[in-house]
Automatic annotation (TrEMBL):
Cofactor annotation remark: Binds 1 divalent metal cation per subunit.
The keyword Lipoprotein is annotated on this UniProt entry: no
Binding site for Zn(2+): 88
Record organism: Homarus americanus (American lobster)
Classification via InterPro entries: Amidohydro-rel, Metal-dep_hydrolase_composite, Metal_Hydrolase
Pfam families to which the protein is assigned, alphabetical: Amidohydro_1
Key words of the record: Hydrolase, Metal-binding
Record domain Amidohydrolase-related: where: 81-321
Needed co-factor(s): a divalent metal cation
One Gene Ontology term from the biological process aspect of the record: N-acetylglucosamine catabolic process
Domain of life: Eukaryota
Name listed for the protein in its UniProt record: N-acetylglucosamine-6-phosphate deacetylase-like
Gene for this chain: Amdhd2-L
Length: 341
C-alpha cells in the first residue's frame, strides 16, 4: 500500500487544490501509458506533480553552491585524498552533450563572470572540461590556466580524425606543442573498441590516461537507477539512459579498466599501471607526490595479485591499510626505527 509523506498530518487533512504543500505517495503501482509502473506519486496545488523540476530546478536555484563546499582534503581511513573537483559542464557543445541535459548547458560569452556565477568559486576546482570552440572560451581557458587549473578539451565539435584533417587526434603526434599532450580514454569494453585502444596507445603511449567515467550506480548491480534527474539502466558493464541508447557514464572500477587495457591493447602490466597512476598525476602536476613509488612520495598504493587476472588485495592511503579483499592474505609488519635501517 502507498503511504503519504507531507509537512502536515495527512489523516483528515488530505491535499486541497489551494494547498501548496507537496504530498508524496511512495511505493505506488501506477497505471501510466497503458502499463503498470512502480514509482512515487506527487501532488501539489490540486495537480499531479513532476518532481524533477521541483528538486532539480527550484531547489538548485535556492541552494548554496555545492563546489565551494568540497574542500581539498588529505586521505585517510575515511577515504582517498580530495585533490580538487573535476567539473564537466555546463560549458560544452550541445551537439556533443552525451547524457548531459540540454536545458542545463551554458555558454561563456560573458567570460569568467559566467563561470563564477555557475560554480560559485573556482578555488576548489582542479580540472575543468570545456568545449574550446564556444564563444568566449579562449579567454576563460587562459584565465583558468593562469590559476593553475587544468583545462581539458571535451564534449567538443572540433573535427574528428580524417586523413586530410586529423582534428584533435592530430595533437597526439604534433611537433608544434612543446609540452606533453595527455588524453583520457575509457577502457571499459563499452566506450572504446579494442582496436581504438591499440591505435591510441601506439600513437602516443606516454600520454594515455585511463578513465573509469564511473558514476553513482557503480556497484549497485543491474536495474534502473536514479542519477540526478536521469533514470539510468545498468545492464552488466553498460549504463545508458532509460529512454535512449545514450551511454550515461560507466559502472566499472579502475582495476577493471587496467585489466581491459592489458587485454584489449596488448600492453604490459607496467604500461597499464602507469596509465592509471603516473600519467594522471602528471596531468595534475603532482607526480612528485602521487602516482609513483619513488622515495618521499605519498604512501598511497595498492597490493595486487599479478599472477593471472590482476586483482586488488589491499589498498593503503597515507601508509594505512583501508581495504582488504576477503581472500587477501594476512599482512605481517615489522616495525623499525631509523637506527635499524
Amino acid at each position: 500500500m502507498p503511504s503519504i509523506t507531507s509537512t502536515t498530518p495527512p489523516c483528515g487533512n488530505l491535499p486541497t487544490h489551494t494547498d501548496t504543500t507537496i504530498y508524496q505517495f511512495i511505493n505506488c503501482r501506477l497505471v501510466r501509458r497503458g502499463r503498470i509502473v512502480k514509482d512515487d506519486f506527487w501532488v501539489r496545488g490540486g495537480k499531479i506533480l513532476n518532481p524533477e523540476p521541483v528538486f532539480y530546478v527550484e531547489k538548485l536555484q535556492a541552494d548554496v553552491k555545492v563546489i565551494p563546499r568540497i574542500k581539498k582534503t588529505p586521505g585517510g581511513p575515511g577515504g582517498a585524498s580530495i585533490l580538487g573537483v573535476h567539473v564537466e559542464g555546463p560549458f560544452i557543445s550541445p551537439a556533443k552533450k552525451g547524457a548531459h541535459p540540454l536545458q542545463y548547458l551554458e555558454g561563456v560569452e560573458e567570460g569568467m563572470s559566467k563561470v563564477l556565477d555557475v560554480y560559485g568559486s573556482i578555488d576548489n576546482i582542479a580540472k575543468i572540461t570545456i568545449a574550446p570552440e564556444l564563444p568566449g572560451a579562449q579567454e576563460v581557458i587562459r584565465h583558468l590556466s593562469s590559476r593553475g587549473i587544468v583545462v581539458s578539451v571535451g564534449e567538443s565539435t572540433i573535427s574528428e580524425f580524417h586523413h586530410r584533417d586529423p582534428g584533435l587526434v592530430g595533437l597526439l603526434t604534433s611537433r608544434l606543442i612543446s609540452h606533453p599532450v595527455h588524453y583520457g580514454i575509457i577502457s571499459d569494453g563499452i566506450h572504446t573498441h579494442p582496436a581504438a585502444l591499440r591505435i591510441a596507445h601506439r600513437a602516443h603511449p606516454q600520454g594515455i590516461v585511463l578513465v573509469t567515467d564511473a558514476m553513482a550506480a557503480m556497484g549497485l548491480g543491474d536495474g534502473v537507477h536514479q542519477i540526478g534527474q536521469m533514470k539510468v539502466l545498468v545492464e552488466g558493464r553498460k549504463a545508458r539512459l532509460v529512454d535512449f541508447d545514450t551511454l550515461a557514464g560507466s559502472v566499472v572500477t579502475m582495476d577493471d579498466c587496467v585489466r581491459h587495457f592489458i587485454n584489449g591493447a596488448g600492453v604490459s602490466l607496467v604500461e597499464a599501471i602507469d596509465a592509471a597512476t603516473l600519467h594522471p598525476a602528471r596531468v595534475m602536476g603532482i607526480d612528485h607526490l602521487k602516482g609513483t613509488l619513488e622515495y618521499g612520495t605519498d604512501a598511497d598504493f595498492v597490493l595486487v595479485l599479478d599472477k593471472g587476472p590482476l586483482k586488488v588485495l589491499n589498498t593503503f592511503i597515507a601508509g594505512e591499510c583501508v581495504y582488504s579483499a576477503s581472500d587477501a592474505p594476512n599482512l605481517t609488519f615489522t616495525q623499525k626505527s631509523p637506527s635499524d635501517i
